[in-house]
């Protein structure tokens, strides 16, 4: 999807609760954050927990520490959202 | 509630061994103690990237930060922006370890430091882009600390010659190499002159020791800084006060 389409879609969704699942970094890059709490509310992370042969899928919001780490880097303004997630081990 | 650390150091190493993070942390802590004996260790955090931050961990490997291999450009830009972001945070330093890959006597033939400056330092400068003024940029770049032991990290790690001699005495060697460690204790710069120190057959007692390398690194002698040329050169570029 082109940048301007994503921008238009995100704009159209404003003010509503929406659930988006995407592996596309561009969508993530259009998200905006104004607080650590908002970071925690926004992301639901899916992880695979492996112990021995067993696998379990875990869903959860970021920990306080991870959300703070993300927001600190976000405020600097050098990295895109997807880059922060990747370099902080959150995606 | 206790206050958080006053100084944060992000530790990046091109070593890929399973205890590479722990070794760099221990060695760097020792060096910091040499430079700033009064620094309260509780005020300092020394942290590698998150275990799951594979995007960063992959690109600090020797071939990757030099921009080789598939996907190298994407990974390199990611690394440069990651480092730049960390350097913009207050009281945060980025420590980047890579080997000299030469004995110190031939350090002039190693292009590693020049490669690092040309590739990584310049990449980080570009990553700052338009967001910083020139004065800010230089202040940030001064917090990118190069750790460049010659030949490799073992030149600094094995400076703990007392622990090395103990390990040798307690292990199967039965103290056969103690004389070597004592010789290095007397002439500490000599460790910088040992080629491929990791592969030395006569130092197997250290390689095969069950004592973690990080524990061996936990004490570095004050004299090391005066006599290890590669340590002296690395730290000479670092800030004077923390």
Order of helices and strands of chain A: HHHEEHH
What is the count of distinct domains of chain B? 1
Shape of chain A: globular
Structural class of chain B: alpha/beta
Q: In brief, what are we looking at here?
A:
Chain A has 91 residues and is of the alpha+beta class. Chain A is built from 5 helices and 2 strands, in the order αααββαα.
Tell me what you see in this structure.
The complex is a heterodimer of chains A (91) and B (242). In chain A, 47% of the residues lie in helices and 15% in strands. With 91 residues, chain A is α+β, with helices and mostly antiparallel strands. Chain A has one domain (3-87). Chain A is globular and about 45 Å long. Chain B has 242 residues and is of the alpha/beta class. Chain B has one domain (7-236). Helix content of chain B is 47%, strand content 9%. Chain B has 13 helices and four strands. In chain B, α4 (72-88) packs across α5 (112-128) and α8 runs antiparallel to α9 (178-186). The two termini of chain B are 24 Å apart. Chain A binds chain B through residues 72-73, 76-79, 83-84, 86-90, and chain B through 49-56, 78-79, 81-82, 84-85, 88-89, 127-129, 131.
Question: Which helices and strands, and how do they pair?
Answer:
The complex is a heterodimer of chains A (91) and B (242).
Chain A (H helix, E strand, L loop, with lengths): L2 H11 L11 H5 L6 H7 L2 E7 L2 E7 L3 H13 L4 H7 L4
Antiparallel strand pairs in A: 1-2
Helix pairs in contact in A: 3-4
Chain B lengths: L6 E7 L6 H16 L8 E4 L6 H6 L2 H4 L6 H17 L3 E6 L14 H17 L5 H8 L2 E4 L6 H4 L3 H10 L7 H9 L17 H4 L5 H4 L5 H6 L1 H8 L6
